[in-house]
Specification:
Elements (H helix, E strand, L loop, with lengths): L9 E2 L2 E2 L5 H6 L1 E4 L10 H6 L8 H7 L3 H13 L3 H6 L17 H14 L4 E5 L7 H9 L7 E5 L16
Parallel strand pairs: 3-4, 4-5
Antiparallel strand pairs: 1-2
């Protein structure tokens, strides 16, 4: 996003200044504290970004694929949104309203997490990914090893679950 003021950043022993910027950005999933949501189905909002090279109608057609639906259900289970799915058989197709008005704050945050995880990128940057969640749901999500097999940078004020992180830097 920005050039470093001093020093260099390396990924796999390669200076990022020498990498194609589009390639570099395609390797990063970002989970913002405030998620942008559209007045569309949960399924569409969840896949936003995964099919970014397609137009809206192509995405809608892709979302009828059973394999994609199974992947979405798996991600919803990891992000602890499956209880909504169990209580409403058509939850994936439910319109979440303008800016996600039909979802609670915790559900919006879990949707943001699910959206970042479904991209399956090697780098994940998350800004306060659990601030709207209770300890129990945070613990369940972290116990699914959501940050394993990727380099993750988590920015948080929450110090309850530091055992799940390999390295903690306190500023």
């Amino acid at each position: 996003f920005y050039e470093p003021n001093s020093g260099n950043i390396y990924i796999n022993h390669k200076n990022i200044k020498n990498l194609n910027i589009d390639y570099l950005r395609s390797q990063i999933a970002i989970i913002p504290q405030e998620i942008n949501m559209f007045n569309d189905s949960l399924k569409y909002n969840l896949c936003y970004g995964k099919f970014s090279n397609m137009d809206y109608n192509e995405i809608i057609n892709m979302l009828t694929n059973d394999e994609i639906n199974n992947e979405l259900i798996n991600i919803l289970e990891i992000s602890q949104l499956q209880t909504k799915l169990q209580n409403n058989n058509d939850f994936l197709n439910m319109n979440i309203g303008e800016r996600g008005m039909k979802l609670s704050g915790g559900e919006k945050q879990r949707l943001a997490l699910a959206r970042g995880l479904i991209l399956e990128r090697p780098f994940l940057f998350a800004d306060e990914p659990f601030s709207a969640l209770d300890y129990k749901n945070e613990e369940k999500i972290l116990s699914n090893n959501v940050f394993d097999n990727k380099t993750s940078l988590i920015i948080t004020h929450n110090t309850k679950n530091l055992d799940y992180y390999d390295k903690v830097i306190k500023l």
